[in-house]
Request: fold
Amino acid sequence: MPPAALAHLRFPLERTCGRRYREPPHPYRNEFQRDRDRVVHARAFRRLENKTQVFTPGLSDHFRNRLTHTIEVSQIARTVAGVLGIDEDLTEALSLAHDIGHPPFAHAGEQELDRLLSGFGERFDHNLHALRIVESFERPYPSFPGLNLTFEVREGIVKHSRDFSPGEIPELDEYFPGMRPPLEAQLIDLCDEIAYNTADLDDGYRAGLVDIDDACRAVDKVQELAETAAIQFPGAPERVRMHSVVRGLINWLVSGLMEGTVAAAAALASVEEVRACDGRVARFSPETAAGTRQLKSFLRDTVYESERLVSDRRYSTGRIAGLFEFFLAHPDRLPANYLEESADQPLHRRVCDYIAGMTDGFLLRTCEQMNIP
Ligand code: MG
Reply:
């Protein structure tokens, strides 16, 4: 692959649609670098440290949490952007922001809030919630609400995992419905997949849920990497060989992502053409796409559907539902300043947003304080 093979598809910073509120330029940081820094300094970003990725802490201090996962995504995505020659700053800002809308207790928490809101004819989606965080909940500036991020970062946040058609989500009509986001944004979703699939294999192994021989039988590439590791380091302990398998997998998937994307972009000449494509341009090569499918299905059976994680999820969704019902019945127990700030929203939304912003630890402490059984 030639260096900077997709430099002609890099989003040109000078063509940004800009910020909602005008601000003077910074003397030495460009607009996407400023956005990256705004995300890092956001309170919602710091809370990622105490939010579950897959494994709730307790049994080990070495499992990924949502913050370390975010750092892994950002590091993978920056590498990919650098090799392909697209905008590294936009890529980095988007990867750091990609999970800030996650409620406590990972996907189980998101599904539970969605279920609770559906009783009121509404939905909860962590990407839309992330947009509300950066547009209004964060309030570090005196002259406007939110972080006042550039349009491209906000567009990347709402199109993190899927695109939408015109009229499908009316409140997002300004974000080019029916069009693909720039390549920088498209890549984040797949870098996210690489990061969590490999990390969940690693954490699953450390948690005793993944057996290396089972993983070899289920995922061809794991078998190949494990054989290589056994030949290269015959005396190494199993956990060290497992680490070299995980490292090899990340390398293979990242290379496959770059190859697949370069091949798919062969006929494209500009960012406008990327936007106008029927589907997304960023993709894995056929072999790495097949490997990803094998890995996902193995992880579903051994990790995500394991008795331990299923019972963890049952416990945490029960806590979320209990707290939601409690605040609906006793809105006066919500903090006074929050009640004031959110006065324009219906009660179920205020309760949902309040819970969605919590860390896992804060949610459990709140349940205790409110005597929720
Ligand atoms: Mg993620």
Observations:
- DSSP finds 17 helices and no strands in the chain.
- The chain has one domain: 31-369.
